[in-house]
Specification:
The structure holds two protein chains of two kinds.
Chain A (H helix, E strand, L loop, with lengths): L2 H28 L6 H27 L12 H23 L4 H10 L1 H18 L3 H7 L1 H7 L2 H16 L8 H36 L1
Chain B lengths: L16 H14 L4 H16 L12 E2 L13 H4 L14 H5 L9 E6 L5 E4 H7 L2 E9 L4 E11 H8 L7 E6 L8 H4 L8 E5 H5 L4 E6 L2 E2 L9 E3 L12 E7 L6 H5 L23 E4 L8 E3 L7 H4 L13
Helix pairs in contact in B: 1-2
Classes of the chains: A mainly alpha, B alpha+beta.
């Protein structure tokens, strides 16, 4: 990929990822954030984070469709960091606007409320991923352990999903589309891995056969 | 003091919502607010009506003042009361009912009275409207989801209606069933898995309490569909879901009737569901609430026992463990 194309695409991703936060800020200024501003901020940041998480999970499976799509990997870190940004604002919304930065309230929430426990857990899963996102950290850790560490994103996807379901009222189906997408993206991975192994075996077998 | 003097002007003398705002602003001015402040306030409150969002045109109602109205609270804007609704028959998002409830056929409308009554009856909505003088009653409204509003309802005490129904002594509870028609309310099966129709219930003494309002309007006009047109109940000391909307059947029963949210998640929504800051919802605290329509940094406020109506209703629950009977 040409350097100019790369820069152009990265700029577009930046713009796209900044849309939700810009929308929140502008709506606040315009006084059009809706009747329940706190809930609106929590909902927009939470949904953006979880859909960005799904986007980062989509990159590997889409790349495996064709070697010509391998350049997609260049955008995963950026998307992942934006996911972390929205997750952080989402977290701050809870700490500040819901709990009023009151330590007792925060403690009680973490002790007693399972959807908050799931939310905090998700944040703790993605925090080390953001912390080790620099090229320096990848080198320092080495590809193998870095990869292993970053498998935490699968757990984060699951806990984020549970967090969402536990947040809505029993019987409400709003999280269903996202759940479907995440389950497909997680479920396709063992299938792709099996396919890769099968191809590798076939290649080995072919190599052996041609030697005879 | 929660219950104050009746308003000095009945809203029957008021010609529109705009005037209602001017009247409320004027009262605030008389209470000693600076003239400039009151003018700004009036301007802010009128602003949404310069370019109002789509709302079914309400019909003005003749009303009288009520000693049971709540004073000392700033009213939530009409626009917020009508665009931030939980009415799952019309979708689960807060903005859905305003968009989807247009098809609710509010005329003709009858309310069937059945169960433990001298004789089953059917009331036409237009007769119900004339049964008693309609009163202006401002009530705080506290949702179980920890948000709140202050709403100027129009109606009369449900007890007045119940007297007309001649319930038998064996009637210990009253059950309300809401309108249910999948042709008009496809969201009932698209957005959620809930046993419809929506059912709510009260103990007889709760239903007879003068605060319990049989409600036909808000802001001096008939209810918009998304707020439970054409007739609903309002129980200001209970979480909002206890106040059944768009009522078609009132059933007097001997045993505690099944109620929708209690059936859906009994550990989260009790039959009584009185506003109680000391009993948390399993998923969030009920100690505080978010007042709708304020900027995010100013929304948080302390939740009051029985939503501030303890003087009128606490005696209904004497000797009851409100932690167990939440």
């Amino acid at each position: 990929m040409k350097r100019s194309t790369l820069i152009l695409l990265k700029t577009l991703i930046w713009i796209g990822c900044l849309v939700p936060i810009t929308w929140l800020v502008l709506s606040y200024i315009n006084n059009s954030l809706g009747p329940d501003q706190t809930a609106e901020i929590a909902s927009v940041t939470g949904l953006t984070a979880i859909w960005l998480l799904a986007t980062t999970l989509a990159i590997s499976p889409i790349r495996s469709l064709s070697p010509r799509l391998s350049w997609l990997i260049k955008f995963r870190r950026l998307l992942g960091l934006f996911m972390f940004f929205y997750a952080t604002v989402h977290m701050l919304t809870w700490l500040g606007l819901y709990a009023g930065f009151d330590l007792t309230t925060i403690e009680t929430d973490i002790e007693k409320r399972r959807f908050i426990i799931m939310g905090v857990t998700t944040y703790l899963f993605v925090l080390p991923l953001a912390a080790t996102s620099t090229t320096w950290a990848i080198r320092k850790l080495g590809g193998r352990s870095w990869n292993r560490l970053h498998m935490l994103i699968y757990l984060a996807a699951l806990t984020a999903m549970v967090h969402y379901w536990w947040k809505v009222k029993t019987g409400v189906l709003t999280p269903a589309p996202l759940t479907l997408v995440l389950l497909v993206l997680l479920g396709v991975r063992p299938v792709l891995a099996w396919n890769r192994r099968r191809k590798a075996r076939a290649a080995v077998a072919l190599g052996t056969a041609s030697k005879v | 003091m929660l219950i104050g003097k009746p308003p000095d002007i009945p809203s029957s003398e008021i010609t529109s919502r705009d005037d209602y705002f001017r009247y409320l602003s004027r009262r605030r001015f008389l209470k000693g607010a600076a003239a400039a402040g009151a003018a700004t306030l009036a301007a802010n409150r009128l602003a949404p009506f310069v370019a109002p969002r789509a709302v079914q045109a309400g019909t003005k109602l003749q009303t009288v003042p009520s000693p049971l109205t709540t004073t000392g609270e700033e009213l939530t804007k009409y626009d917020d009361i009508t665009h931030y609704n939980n009415f799952y028959e019309f979708g689960v998002d807060k903005g859905d009912p305003a968009k989807n409830a247009g098809g609710l056929p509010t005329r003709p409308w009858t309310v069937k009275v059945e169960g433990k009554v001298a004789k089953p009856l059917t009331f036409d909505i237009d007769d119900l409207l004339k049964l008693r003088p309609l009163e202006d009653r401002v009530y705080r409204h506290r949702c179980v989801e920890a948000w709140s509003m202050v709403i100027p309802w129009v109606g009369y005490s449900l007890s007045e209606f119940i007297k007309q129904c001649n319930p038998l002594p064996s009637a210990k509870y009253v059950q309300f069933l809401s309108y249910y028609n999948t042709k008009v309310e496809k969201w009932t099966y698209e957005d959620a898995t809930i046993n419809w129709p929506y059912s709510e219930g009260l103990r007889m003494d709760e239903a007879m309490n003068p605060l319990t309002l049989l409600t036909f309007g808000l802001y001096g006009e008939t209810l918009p569909n998304q707020d439970g047109a054409p007739v609903r109940v309002v129980l200001p000391w209970k979480y909002g879901f206890k106040s059944a909307k768009s009522i078609v059947t009132v059933r007097f029963v001997e045993k505690q009737p099944p109620t929708t949210w209690n059936d859906q998640a009994p550990n989260e929504y009790g039959f009584y569901s009185n506003v109680n800051p000391n009993v948390d919802h399993p998923r969030w605290s009920q100690k505080t609430e978010r007042r709708i329509g304020l900027p995010f940094y100013a929304q948080r406020r302390t939740t009051l026992m029985f939503n501030g109506y303890a003087d009128q209703v606490a005696s209904l629950y004497n000797g009851m463990d409100l932690r167990r009977n939440f």
